[in-house]
Amino acid sequence: MSDPKQPLIGGEPPPYPSAPPPPVYNPSTYHSTAPPAYGPTTQHNTTVITAPPVVAATTLVIRPRTYLVWSIVSILWCPILGIIALLYSLQVDSEWAAGRYDEAYAASRMARILNLISLLCHVAAWVVFIIVIVSVRAA
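Above: the chain sequence. Below: its structure as tokens.
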């Protein structure tokens, strides 16, 4: 490796070219008239009616939950309701992708309701099971 204090082999590097001059501001090239006012104006025997621009209001649409994992787990609790809830959960994404937001929210709501019913059926089955076991052992 060469000594950093040694000069470069070819001598000093060539000088950089000078920067181009900045653009010149020429006010005569710009329009000196005011922008057209809103309302009717005449141009070549034609009436042109201009209006202010329309600003569209946008609303923030939040993607609904799919409850997909809950639907898969609820198949173990109550298979019939779990499968139906799974179908509604899968429908949420397809409706959302198609731009049908109301249908996506309805499918999400139905999947949640079916999953809750499936969970309640599972809990009720366990309660009945425990009551039967306790009553059989007591007799």
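The two ends are 96 Å apart (CA to CA).
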